[in-house]
Amino acid sequence: MCKKIAVYGKGGIGKSMVTSNLAAAFASLGRKVVQIGCDPKADSTLNLLGGRKLIPVMDYYRLHDCAPDFEQIGTTGFGDVFCIETGGPTPGLGCAGRGIITTFNLLEELDVFGRTRPDVVLYDVLGDVVCGGFAAPIREGYAREVLIVTSGEKMALYAARNIRSAVDNFADRGYARVRGIIFNRRNVDGEEEKVRRFASEAGLPIIADIPRSSEIIHFEDLGQTVVEGDPGLPVSRLFTELARTLLEDPPTR
Is 65 among the residues known to form the active site? Predict the structure, then answer.
């Protein structure tokens, strides 16, 4: 059964780093992975593609008179991860979440999941505002589980609470549920206490604790995930263990 996971978090909190390293970890465990970047910046898959930027779906629409076909909607990166970027409208024009809705409709028209037959689908979703298109992975049944990435910074925790509330609003419809929190450390004062308090109040487990790591930054400069660059590093093993955990069925709450 395909695992469908949406990774949410405040812009700049490291959700793309987490998502791409998870994709690489799943691939290293022999799973077929699709990663979909759901952010107008379209930078989710950079480190799976050697630093090469993929043409987003919305950019393709602006450059051509027709919709992209299967060969244009995405490309294969490290570990045969199939990478897709939704993109967004021209800055200052239109709704940023429209790119997600347009891309999801195209995924169905082209039967992308039927063609790629993934074991894991990862959605990397901006979580500053959980409305419209940005809530699509939660409310349309694309994702079944949500991971919330946060640090101990005030605005990161504010976004995390909003994401939690948004998921709760759809709980009675059988949509996605929050699997847990990924604590991406920024080394701010009192960080661990703040994140653990949020987790306790939300009734959610912290399923990964990612240290602030120079190794992650080093391999990102090379256009790689740390899992690809050196899978033996402690931080790489953290992502691999997280991938193994996510492959298991979530505990009943």
Answer: no
